[in-house]
C-alpha cells in the first residue's frame, strides 16, 4: 500500500500541471487503475481549489507586479473571451482537461466572475469523467498505442 502511495505522489503533482500526465504517468508507474483515476482527479482539483479561492489575489498581487498592463496581449484576451462566450462555464470545464491546463481553465473560469461553488462543481465533474475515460483507454489500449518507454515494467 505504501509503495502505491509513494508512486502516486509524483503523478499527483504532474496532474496539477497537465491533466493527461496523470493517466499516462499512472500507467507507466504501474499504479492500479482506481489509484490512477483518484490521483488524477485529486491533482486537478487541488489546482482548482487553489486558484478558485486565491485566483483574484494572485492576479492582483503577483501577476500585476510582474506583467505590465500594456504588455498584455489583446489577442489572447479576445481568445479567452471567445471561448467563454461560446461555451460558458460548463464548456470551459469540459475543455480544461482536453485543451486547457488545470491552471489555465481555472483562471479563465475565475476571471469570468463565476460563483466559486459552480467552478468547483463543474471542474470536478469534468475531472472525474475525463479521468475515467483517459485512464480506462490508456490502461486497456496502452500496450498497443503507447511508446515503449511509457509501458510499465
Automatic annotation (TrEMBL):
Q: Show the stretches that span the lipid bilayer.
A: 12-31, 37-58, 87-107, 119-141
The reply to whether Transmembrane figures as a keyword in the UniProt entry is: yes
User: Looking at the record's lineage, which domain of life comes first?
Assistant: Bacteria
Keywords, in A-Z order: Membrane, Transmembrane, Transmembrane helix
- What is this protein's name? Uncharacterized protein
